[in-house]
Amino acid sequence: MLELLIGNKNIIQQVFIIAELSANHGNDITVAKNTIKAAKEAGADAIKLQTYTADTITIDCDNEYFQINTGTIWDGRTLYDLYKEAYTPWEWHEELMNYANELGLICFSSPFDYSAVDFLENLNVPAYKIASFEITDIPLIEYVASKNKPVIISTGIATLAEIEEAISACRRMGNEQIILLKCTSSYPAKIEDANLLTMKNMKETFSVYVGLSDHTLGTTVPITAVAMGARVIEKHLILDKSLGGPDASFSLDKNEFEQMVNSVRDAELALGKVNYELTETKKKNRNLSRSLFVVKDIKKGDKFTKENVKSIRPGYGISPKYYENILQREAKCNLRRGTPLNWTMVN
């Protein structure tokens, strides 16, 4: 696969960490900007918005089809009511993106219809995110992919066939800049439903970069995902959970997000690269390994035996692999107990 840049970040060189703003602004642009600042201070690479209005994503209707009743934290509300509360005003977007850029954060968004894509194109976003529940909207994915920017796709509600259709839609538009995010579309999600092995299988099956959009509580799942090859981690960020709102219960506060970022970076360091070379520290520590030592005084001409030569620590003598070769050979000189054996002492 080719290298993939999101803004100025190469996701192969370092895991790309996205702080999802979502509805965690409480309909206050100051809170939104403070959350962006917190994302930067916590070590995120990017902040992600969502670009829709209640009227572009659904209709104002309260019949049974538009009532939320799927075992979520939003049950009992209508879709229109939820999205009216949760959306990020479009008139904020440019100011928030400019503020993020001033802080050195990449800012992009999830569009939910064609008008949102056109709006975001005018703001020159560096990438697009397809939300889990939009993965079956193939015309929308084609339109996004046609902009020839990285397309990050959450797979939370998709079957294998639907994931393949979404990828094919991007490739039909000549866009190979595809990242699939393993996602469990439960809010919050259970750790046992993460099934991160699916993420690895998606990479192998579709030859794309993979990552995680996480709704579990805590940081265990993101860190595990990095150890398994995730190149992107997305997690909701909130200034203070006491702010409430639709996404507060499964969002991380600044301290938790920073802890996750630090753990992800530590995991990257631990993964390192395939390397069998010995560091200087390892070379020094080899002296603590075993080797052949004289354990009883030996006179010149005496034979080496199991009683007077043993494999012990430290490692200053002949390697223990030559032990059988040494036995019954003669000493060239007098040797005192505690002497590391070397070949100049052996006839």
Explain the overall architecture.
There is one protein chain. By secondary structure, the protein is α/β, with parallel strands linked by helices. It folds into two domains: 13-52 and 87-271, Aldolase class I (TIM Barrel, Alpha-Beta Barrel); 280-345, Alpha-Beta Complex (Type Iii Antifreeze Protein Isoform Hplc 12). The chain contains twelve helices and twelve strands. The protein has helices at residues 29-42, 54-57, 79-86, 90-103, 114-122, 138-145, 160-172, 197-206, 220-227, 254-271, 280-285, 323-326, and strands at residues 5-6, 9-10, 16-20, 46-51, 106-111, 128-130, 151-154, 178-183, 209-214, 232-236, 291-294, 309-312. The strands form three sheets. Strands 5-4-3-10-9-8-7-6 form an eight-stranded parallel sheet. Strand 8 (178-183), helix 8 (197-206) and strand 9 (209-214) form a beta-alpha-beta unit. Helix 1 runs parallel beside helix 4 (90-103), helix 6 (138-145) packs parallel to helix 7 and helix 9 (220-227) packs parallel to helix 10 (254-271). It starts with a strand and ends in a 21-residue tail after the last helix. The mean pLDDT is 95.
